[in-house]
Amino acid sequence: MTSYIRYRPDLEQPFPNEQELVRQVVEAMGKANRQVADKHRHGLRDAHAKSHGVLAGELRVQPNLPAHLAQGLFAEPAVYPVIVRFSSAPGDLRSDQVPVQRGIAIKVIGAPGPRAVDDGFTTQDFLLVNHPTLPFGNIAEYAKLQDLLEKQPRQSDQQLQLTGLAARVAAKALTRAGRPLPPAVETLAAANHHILGETFHSMAALRYGDHVAKISAAPRSADVKALTGRPVDRKAGESALRDLVVDFFAHNSADYDIRAQLCTDIDRMPVEDASVLWPEELSAHEVVAVLHLPAQNAYSDARRRYADDVLSFSPWHALEAHRPLGSIMRSRRTAYPASSDFRHRLNDVEPQEPSDIKELPA
Ligand code: HEM
């Protein structure tokens, strides 16, 4: 019988100088963010600045989950309203032709239970990216990226596209030679595929009630499954992904499996190193809910303004049952409010955390 690691606070092992590392990262991100805001004369997110679709939907917790999966938000079968924002990773408005990582942020409204931090909210956010691991998997490694982060705003879309191309050539050569890909090559070599066919991952671990898990979202319905691996048309322009999302949801609905991969071996499935892929042979991704997104207008002006300027998503908008774990997650407790406060202040927009799906404009 599989034995699932039980959550205990001492599974987390902070670095002795962690606060200083976080301070450095947040400061570097803030600098980059000010350059970008100056370029656009508008405050944007420090990361995942560009949205491609903003949707209302439902999270349908599956009935009859076995005890190890019936935890936290997923303890009882229930249907929760959600707001979903699709995005690209850079903290700038890049052309959709630049093959960077893509994200989905899911805000579950009305999540019952004690909070991870005392924020008075009822939301549970899941922030997922279309890659299973974070190459720089702890905050000390991540801090080494600072230089790159500060330089990125000064690189043109063409430079980024060329870097991606060079990384893909290098990745092919290394794979042919049977050599592992260095983390930077792996990140930069992403191909440019239809965003709705992607599988998205939490990369880092979170508490899963009595246990510990990584969360992912994978295409479930045939219409989105058919989009997996479909290249983005090179002639489709700078907003190709928004156009694809809007076209799709004008006539179609989409279902994604929300899956939990529970930790069964703390050494081979570490909490403090998000660069380690948790082996599926040790623990499968098990479906715990279905994310249902009906047909709708996925990108009205009012929605874009609300999602980009008013809302904030954060892994720390969380139930205690889904407390984010590990140094990468802990650093995000400071990084997200810093980014969110900056853009709200600059744009003179009041932040709002929704308690009702009706707050999302049509
Ligand atoms: C496990 C790794 C990570 C994942 C999966 C992830 C994912 C995401 C996603 C999907 C968004 C977009 C949210 C939205 O649509 O509003 C986002 C935003 C952001 N991320 Fe991350 N991220 C990760 C790590 C980090 C780290 C280590 C930092 C910095 C220390 C960071 C800083 C930010 C910031 C500042 C924002 C914008 C927040 C705002 O202004 O509302 N992320 N991230």
UniProtKB/TrEMBL annotation:
Gene3D superfamilies: Catalase core domain. Residues 342-362 are annotated as: Disordered. Transmembrane segments: none annotated. This is Catalase family protein. It comes from the Bacteria. SUPFAM superfamilies: Heme-dependent catalase-like.
